[in-house]
Amino acid sequence: MAILLLLQRREQVTAAEVARELEISERTARRDLDALGVAGVPVYSVQGRGGGWRLVGGARTDLSGLTAGEARALFMVAGPASSGTPAGKAALRKLVRALPEPFRAQAEAAASSLVTDPHGWGSSRAEPRQPRFLDELQDAVIRGVQVRLGYVDRERSGTERTVHPLGIVAKGPSWYLVATTDAGRRTFRVDRVSSVDPTGEPVHRPADFDLAESWRAIADEVERRRTPLEARAVCPPQALGVLRIGFGDRLEVGGSTADGRIEVVIRGNDELAGELAGLVAYLEVTGPPGVRDRLASIGDVLVARYGPRGNGQKYDGAARS
């Protein structure tokens, strides 16, 4: 397909030019050019100096059948932060260089317009659901035009503002628009967008903007706000697998202690001590004192309720303040 599009874009190509453009060997290029003829594409070779390969009569055969919109959708999976396989993304990056000029710029923009972050906030890994205005916002990102955005925040308050769309992120089951506004860079949940009205004015895109890097910074900040508490602990090396499963990105692994255990830091919210209490066989919490005190209180509850003298009695919470 890439070779056919090259032939359509140029009057004539050589095997060496095809090999260089598509990062293949000249032998492979010649074989594939021959294969086009066998497949019924009207391609022929011109021998001698200045020779090469041409389409008969400047034919415009299109094996792909792609419209401009379909080309953009296809190349969304070729971006550096997308979830496509490396081989698939490499093939599409080669193909984009062979697209006709009207398709190429928007296909290249589409390749950098989307980031897929499969992990939802917390432990959710649900598939993204396409909200109402996703296509319109994606189109504005790719065409590089500002939009007048209607938005309803979490307090159900509606606003309108002009934004400069920079990229779209799929985070677990939710979609987000990353954009700049008069108040600086902002993130909008697409399912809260109530209207999208392109203004036709060009987006002012920072020269050094990278959607994947920007989203990592945004996600890290959100996670820090969601998990403001930190607990320090030590654990045997064989326990790290269990902790990674339980805490994921909230676990930071440090160095080794003198007795061979591993230092770790675990982030969480007000329920952090409760999460750690079930892992007493795997780690020892060393701080801060507030988390240790809370663990001790949980221990008192367990002993009072399930210990040999507890007999299932109700715990009144007065054992430890």
Automatic annotation (TrEMBL):
Q: Which Pfam families match?
A: HTH_11 (PF08279), WCX (PF25583), WYL (PF13280)
Q: What domain of life is recorded for the organism?
A: Bacteria
Keywords tagged on the record: Transcription, Transcription regulation
For this protein, the parts annotated as crossing the membrane are none
Xref: InterPro entries: CBASS_pafABC_assoc_protein, DeoR_HTH, HTH_11, WCX_dom, WH-like_DNA-bd_sf, WH_DNA-bd_sf, WYL_dom
Domain HTH deoR-type per the UniProt entry, residue ranges: 1-61
User: Region Disordered: start and end of each range?
Assistant: 110-130
Quote the PANTHER family the UniProt record gives.
Answer: PROTEIN PAFC, PTHR34580
Its protein name is: WYL domain-containing protein
Q: What is the lineage of its organism?
A: Bacteria, Bacillati, Actinomycetota, Actinomycetes, Cryptosporangiales
